[in-house]
Design a protein that fits this description.
Layout (H helix, E strand, L loop, with lengths): L7 H37 L6 H14 L4 H23 L4
């Protein structure tokens, strides 16, 4: 990895900050999509979580996640999915 400037720690931290901003935007987008899916599931009678689909997501993500591996990606995605479902429930319009 090439260093730009005389302070590699600051350079790396700025890059992490940039990734964090993009990650937050992606999480917000995913949460909005989850809410839309949950609305459709409610009217069609589907359950809130689909273990088979979640396993497929984890498997796909683990292929590109490098050292994180399937176990860590599984824990991360479990939290992302649970929190997205929580937001969908909390922001759902009344009956």
């Amino acid at each position: 990895m090439a260093w730009f400037g005389t302070d590699p720690l600051s350079t790396l931290r700025r890059r992490i900050d940039d990734v964090d901003v993009r990650l937050a935007a992606l999480l917000a987008e995913r949460t909005a999509l989850t809410a839309a899916v949950q609305d459709l599931k409610r009217v069609s009678g589907h359950p809130g979580r689909d273990a088979r689909r979640e396993a497929e997501i984890v498997s796909r993500m683990a292929e590109v996640a490098g050292d994180l591996g399937p176990e860590r990606i599984g824990r991360i995605m479990d939290a992302v999915i649970a929190e997205s479902l929580d937001v969908a429930e909390q922001t759902r319009p009344g009956p």
